[in-house]
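Inputs:
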Amino acid sequence: MTKHFCISARTDSLERWQKAFPAGKVCQQVLELVGQVRPGDVLWLQLPSSLNENIDEAVLAAANLFRDCRLVAMSKVPDQQEALLTLNAGAKGYCHTLSNADTFKQIAVVVSHGGLWIGQDLMSRVVNAAEKALSRDRAPSSSAALKQLTSRERAVALEVAKGATNKEIARTLNITERTVKAHLGSAFNKLNVRDRLQLVLVMNTAGELIDNAA
Amino acid sequence: MTKHFCISARTDSLERWQKAFPAGKVCQQVLELVGQVRPGDVLWLQLPSSLNENIDEAVLAAANLFRDCRLVAMSKVPDQQEALLTLNAGAKGYCHTLSNADTFKQIAVVVSHGGLWIGQDLMSRVVNAAEKALSRDRAPSSSAALKQLTSRERAVALEVAKGATNKEIARTLNITERTVKAHLGSAFNKLNVRDRLQLVLVMNTAGELIDNAA
DNA sequence: TGGAAAATTGTACTGATGGACAATGCCGGA
DNA sequence: TCCGGCATTGTCCATCAGTACAATTTTCCA
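Outputs:
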């Protein structure tokens, strides 16, 4: 049977959690749990009230001490960045400290079965952001801007986007520096930018093309 | 009691699913389920074998027809982009068509309780990508690179990141062009880059600092 | 077969960038 | 009071970037 442990520097605000898990144990420090927690148990970690840089260290400490347990982070001031930090650090759930007892129970079921539990709204944003990021990682090669260039212009532009000089690009593509400049000049004209820095900024704007003529 | 329905154009490869849900129903088209599905039931949608642009339409159609149900996508060729598309379209789970029966049951429990179920590996990548994307949306002003610069260096760097020339930056910040160069030079040194283009690339790499000394 | 677009390349030039070497003044902390 | 870090600025110089004006060759399609 799954046991529940709550780690909270302060013990106020935990009424609802305790109602959800009457047999659950509350303590103030992670180290108090050493020897008590078994694989499959659920740890609920109350995050500090203000977003600070130590949050993921706290979660990481707990996650590493009890690898085979499920970690759920509770926050009094839920915040998207905090949520992502804690999930990245190993938490399997993220919720409000004042969730109702039924919600706590549902979260427990979800994480006990290998799932992830975060708020619906946050879920949408995470998945959406991830999709954009992962498609952007294929950018700049697939950006709208590059679609307007010839294949050779594109090849040169992609080298610029890596930070290369014209000499380096000439060597890489086995053409003269003059040819590199010609392709770049043409690309600048097509994308309405004035130099390589603006070219790269436009390329890295996924799916959009900036009109600099305005 | 939760009912399970599987929508699959082809009925091969579903042995393990049927083992997990012996009372489960298999059909070939979403419309066959109209009138049979109740809120809280779980729909398992077998995705087409090849990644194509119609996947999210199929998921969206199912998600819209049965809003109060939980949708899980099954794929014979699991793919990260496909996973994100289906999650974005409304699926709450994404797994291999040939998962074992226990895994199917766990997924059912998770999604029935409002959670998300995707593979561990994919989970890590999604959360990580989301964190990077969401912090990048605040970048470059909050990137790790900028934290190493003095406030004046940072101000100059941010102007460069907008594509400005040294002359323009001098005018904007009300200092001489020589001062702009001094601050840039110092920033180049601290971040180990050789020019403004590489500076901007580093600034736009959220949370990471590129070691160009290699 | 012919024409257009793309690729490649030349010389020459101007302006921008970045670095070298140097200096002064301000501010905050020991 | 002194020192270090930061901000600001100067002159000078080499290199790079970008543009102008021009040309030839290659490729592809009607």
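Remarks. Strands of chain A lie at 4-7, 25-27, 42-46, 70-75, 93-96. Chain A has two domains: 4-133, 146-203.
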